[in-house]
Design goal:
Layout: E1 2-6, E2 14-15, E3 18-19, H1 21-37, E4 42-46, H2 57-72, E5 77-80, H3 87-90, H4 94-98, E6 102-105, E7 115-119, E8 122-129, H5 134-141, H6 148-164, E9 171-177, E10 179-180, E11 199-200, E12 210-214, E13 220-223, E14 226-228, E15 245-251, E16 257-263, E17 270-275, H7 277-282, E18 293-298, H8 307-314, E19 318-323, H9 329-333, H10 336-340, H11 345-356, H12 364-388
Parallel strand pairs: 1-4, 4-5, 5-6, 8-9, 9-12, 10-11, 12-14, 17-18, 18-19
Antiparallel strand pairs: 1-15, 2-3, 7-8, 13-14, 15-16
Helix pairs in contact: 1-2, 5-6, 11-12
InterPro entries: Calcineurin-like_PHP, DNA_Repair-Maintenance_Comp, Metallo-depent_PP-like, Mre11_N, SbcD, SbcD_C
Pfam families: Metallophos, SbcD_C
Organism: Streptomyces chengmaiensis
Length: about 400
């Protein structure tokens, strides 16, 4: 059986206030095309269909069109809710939609009820574990603590109990939306930490032929049978080096796994550039990034004038501008007390001005003002001390 594993669509999300709806539509076109061109038997969507609980209408319409096209392809789709989705809203009319081959799994109480797919070699029981918010599902799973590992363990115990009652040779697939230990996060996932712990061990999925994971936005292989597909688009500059893909999984008659990455369309590449403003504007090595979305970190010791406008001349799609002045290794390693040792009040005040200006110290007129202010403070202190005697 050939499975197409994807997740974290985040329909309706923007990138630094740039709408991604067109790029998301292009991805869904690509997904449907892949279903047809690669003879996919079932599509797995491991959560975070939407970017927020109440998505914008344009995102809902995009989702609606995708469901109609998948249903028309007559290829079953199994989909779970993620931590960004409203499980109740996503699951509305799930019973009716299921008649079209779209299987929405959003209720934790039904996690042990599989979608049973069939091929020439028998049954494949496909279990959908929606995102399990520990505080909300603790009573359902009767766990002692409201913790990710405990509730996911209880859910998988239900899955294994159901699987044990099925005919021998039944293969198994689990969709889950969680932070599994060994995975590498990026800046664009919403934190799901509870009690200081967010990661669960990959061993929870032991015995399952394939675990299709969602939540982390980088495509990752935790083991042959436990994988993240990652998001189809980059949603933060921390993903600049990600290769955005879906997993094409061939599940053999005895549960063998063959996996292939299918690249997703890239609307515009990302680039993280660092250096002085002059270097970024002049270095020919940056030519390939001139049409990328750019995050620029300027290391000029003194903040240059109009840096964003000047960068935009060469990099018109600059979206983020950061400053990290290079003040030398010695200054960076010295402690605050070491930098103050042996310096006068006037020197310390001048150093402060230099620091907040990014390396530009006070001129002669400003030094005179600082000197006068310090003299006034000293006189006031002397007067107060004399009055106290």
């Amino acid at each position: 059986m050939r499975l197409l594993h994807t997740s974290d669509w985040h329909l309706g999300r923007s990138f630094h206030r740039i709408s991604l709806l067109d790029a998301q539509a292009a991805f869904l076109d690509h997904l449907v095309e892949t279903v047809h061109s690669r003879d996919v038997d079932a599509v797995l969507v491991a959560g975070d269909v939407y970017d927020r609980a109440v998505p914008p209408l344009a995102a809902v319409e995009l989702f609606d069109r995708a469901l109609h096209r998948l249903a028309a392809a007559d290829v079953p789709t199994v989909m779970i809710s993620g931590n960004h989705d409203s499980a109740r809203r996503l699951g509305v009319a799930a019973g009716l939609i299921e008649r079209a081959g779209i299987h929405l799994r959003t209720d934790p109480a039904d996690c042990h009820t599989p979608v049973v797919l069939r091929d020439a070699h028998g049954d494949v029981a496909c279990y959908g574990l929606p995102y399990l918010e520990p505080a909300l599902v603790k009573d359902e799973f009767r766990t002692e603590k409201a913790a990710h590992e405990q509730v996911l363990t209880a859910a998988m115990e239900r899955v294994r109990a159901d699987l044990a009652q099925r005919p021998e040779g039944t293969r198994s697939v689990v969709l889950a939306h969680a932070f599994v230990a060994g995975g590498e996060p990026s800046d664009s996932e919403r934190d799901i930490t509870v009690g200081g712990v967010s990661a669960v061990p990959a061993s929870l999925f032991h015995g399952v032929d394939y675990a299709a994971l969602g939540h982390l936005h980088g495509c990752q292989t935790l083991s042959e049978r436990v994988r993240y597909s990652g998001s189809p688009l980059a949603y933060s500059f921390s993903e600049a080096r990600h290769r955005k893909t879906m997993w094409l999984i061939d599940l053999g008659p005895a549960g063998e796994i063959a996996a292939e990455r299918v690249d997703c369309p890239v609307p515009r590449p990302l680039a993280r550039l660092r250096g002085t403003l002059d270097d970024l504007l002049d270095d020919p090595a940056h030519t390939l990034h001139e049409q990328s979305f750019v995050e620029a970190t300027l290391t000029d010791p003194v903040r240059p004038a109009e840096p964003m406008a000047r960068l935009a001349v060469r990099f018109p799609h600059t979206l983020s501008l950061l400053f990290d002045p290079d003040r030398g290794e010695r200054d960076a390693q010295a402690t605050y007390a070491q930098r103050l040792r042996g310096r006068s009040d006037e020197q310390i005040a001048a150093d402060f001005v230099t620091h907040v200006r990014g390396g530009s110290g006070p001129d002669d007129r400003e030094r005179a003002v600082l000197r006068g202010a310090l003299d006034d403070v000293r006189v006031a202190a002397d007067v107060a001390e004399a009055a106290a005697r």
